[in-house]
Task: structure prediction
Amino acid sequence: MRSLFTTRTCRGSPSTSCTAFVLPSMINAPGLGSAVGNTSVESDVAGVEETQGVMAASSKDAEGEAGVNDPTTAELREACGVIGCMLARSTPDGMVNVARMIYLGLVALQHRGQESAGIVTSEGPASTHFNYQKGDGLVAAIFTDEKLNKLKGDMGLGHSRYSTAGGRDPTNTQPFMVHTRHGPLATAHNGELINAGALRKAIMDRGVGLSTLSDSELITQMLSQAPPRGEKAKPDWGARIRHLIEATPTAYSLVVMQEDKIYGVRDPFGNRPLSIGRLMPLGTANEEDQRKPLGWVFSSESCAFQSMGATLMREVYPGEIVELSPDGVRSLDIVPRPKSTAPHSNAHGDPDDIDHETILLGPPPAFCIFEYVYFARADSVFEGQQVYSVRQRCGRQLAIESPVDADIISTVPESATPAALGFSLESGIPYIEVLCKNRYVGRSFIQPDTRSRQLAVAKKFGVLSENLMGRRVVLVDDSIVRGTTVGPIIQLLRQAGAKEVHIRVASPPLKHPCYMGINIPTRGELLANQKPLEELASYVGADSLAYLSIEGLRKAVRQGIVLKNNIPTGHCTACLDGNYPVNLEW
Ligand code: SF4
Result:
């Protein structure tokens, strides 16, 4: 057993060699697809049989250069937002444009990935090709009217991503497509397969070339093969996806498009989020119309549904495979978490008609608790509660755990604002803004000189000096990663006349790397590992500094959870306490 912390420098790096959860049968089966050359902006996969294409590899190790030494660069990076959209059979032609729905969804998920995006649509089972557009940058800049007009079809997938995993190579932009003997297949995912290195090696040992270092290509190749029990006349996509899940237990949410179906999948630990929505008619009070959905959508976060005119049905359950077709939504299967002896479940029917016995078995789920703390948009709903409310409760709990005698409470805008308001409500100390965020700073670049580096924080934040002059300020932040931003901000506040600056962090100290798809710096770079807790305040120049406890965070999260049918809940806190949801062997 190698140490968790010695070899891993980049998510999904080929140098990682996790040996857990590899099923060789997954790799040995025939029929692996060939990668579509998705370096072109539009792809036509007509008439291509299954082959084992070999294309130039790109470096998944490559660190994007952005923000290497810029202290204002987002220190935790989410890895992608996914969308799937399927129109109902009864929806009249021309009423809903799927490409534009996906576009709206991706704009709403822009906070999950701002480096590149892609949309793929299908014109149905009779069509031999998918329509595909992608590019680097923000969604609104990539998808012009002209590009969206080329994306014809009544079903499609969308994806937005950060490039720090897999480098900025455009071949890593999702959705990813392969040719199979059953037609084109597209996938898009959020997360990281914990055993991707071993799965890649096993596939390549079979002589199959992989064209990128993206986990999506790996997933797509694995889905291109028949499951071990074989198939009769037609491919059994539910069985193929189940086989994939059994080979890699975490951490991903996935959308898959094939023929006339879209599948939405969460790993058995439910580490990454995925919700199901109903596309509803707009501008009609007619009750019958209101009961008839125009289609169905998957999204990483429910915040996208409002932009698309959809309503939240529910989240995809951990381990669940949900199928969208022109006729509706079906829950196909729920794969138990490893160590469970649960029998194969096959709960067909209404999406709420699930196999509760299976879902209740095994170790608890491990939904990423940092979705609540930092990643998700405040209006998204997970586990029946809005993210904003959880953040506010974190602030309240922090005020209970670490009170401070001060004149005003303020925030590092903007994701810490609900927690700062919660702190203010609990403590009775007024909330007043002291920092003004410049939303137009654009991308972070390597700062070539000392002065540029020193000015990086001032470029991003202006100080509202009249609000803090001569006052004792409690500044609430949602998290501290490297601590490179907090010191310069404290300095700005002091220079502007703050009498005291107390830092309160609405999450516990980050101490461990994430192996589930979040780009967290190495242990040595994390502020909480650099000094003992009691020395951190003077280290960053604050009068005092305190974090929310792990138990306090759990309490704030659990307090508002509303789950139907006694669905079990559980959260990953591995970056805080080192307890990973699966036993990683390296
Ligand atoms: S280690 Fe931290 S960031 Fe990674 S999945 Fe777990 S809670 Fe989320």
Remarks:
- The radius of gyration is 24 Å.
- Residues 1-74, 340-354 have pLDDT under 50 and may be disordered.
